[in-house]
Amino acid sequence: MTQGPIDEHEELPWTARVYAMLPMPPLRVGVGIGALLLTALVVSEWALGRFDPEVLATLRYDPNRDLRIAIIHCLLFAYAPTAYVVLIHRTRRTWLELHGLLGVSASDTQAAMRRVGHRNRWLGATFVVSGLLLWVFATYASSPEDPFAIANITPEVWWARTLGPFFVAYLVLFSTLIVESSWLLSSSSSRIPELDLLNPDQIAPFKSQALTHSLVIFGMAACASPFGFEAYLLGLSIGIWIFTIVVAAVGLLLPLVGIRRLIRSTRSRELEWCDAELRSARDEMKGREEAGQAGRFGELYAYRQRLGEVSEWPLDAPSFVRFWLYLLIPLGSWLGGALVERFVDAVVQ
What we know:
Radius of gyration: 27 Å
Number of helices: 11
Strand content: under 5%
Number of strands: 0
Structural class: mainly alpha
Distance between the termini: 71 Å
């Protein structure tokens, strides 16, 4: 007897299990982490006298810039693992929805859900190490001096150097999860037994998952966009935007490639059937001149017209509107970054 779909919370990756141990949803956990880090940062700055003009006058550097960058790293550190956990849960729910709506087999559903967030250890380690090496390269490229020399690391910079590797590691994890999930969803379309072209609910999980991918990666870009306010980090900000656009495009389109192919083949078969039935109804009308055949011909023709209106891509106008609204999230963060910059300067001064 075939086992039913596994529970959504079974065999979660360890990060998701840690979040599940806490008595609140992942989003609240992420907000709590961010609030805790920012509070600790402010308290440490207060303890070091960074809000005292006399102490600031003795410093050989302006701590405001490094403090702003530390704040961005706190936000990224809170966002990246939270986005990873949210994406894991959303992807598992998508597989459960596909099982109920499209009849994806229980065995395929089980295998797909167990695979979410789990990958070959050596392959995962390779991705993470590659991301960390890229972080080291970007740190050197964006720093005017040796960024890892002890003499050049101020208390504010310690926050960036400590939190940066963790953020990059989770950025690699949820970016690879987006690509892997997109590929699996696209491949699963070939195992769907039957698709009703007039039932948009059947393809809704694919569309929802694709838009979730875009939302997650644009959220990361929103947290990192204030880097662009620092002139020496403008190159890093542009690189983050390029990476975001590439991953967002893959996460939006790749999950829909397989279902698009299925929609096209199903519609082609239905159109061929309609044409054959229309010819049959036409011949019967000519031979018998029965009013009933004329009515059947009209119904078939209307159905054929409706099939012609079915788009091969599951994305409709509201979906594109949502995607462009997601794209505005990082742009809006620039305004927020300007406000944060002025607020930090006002507090420190």
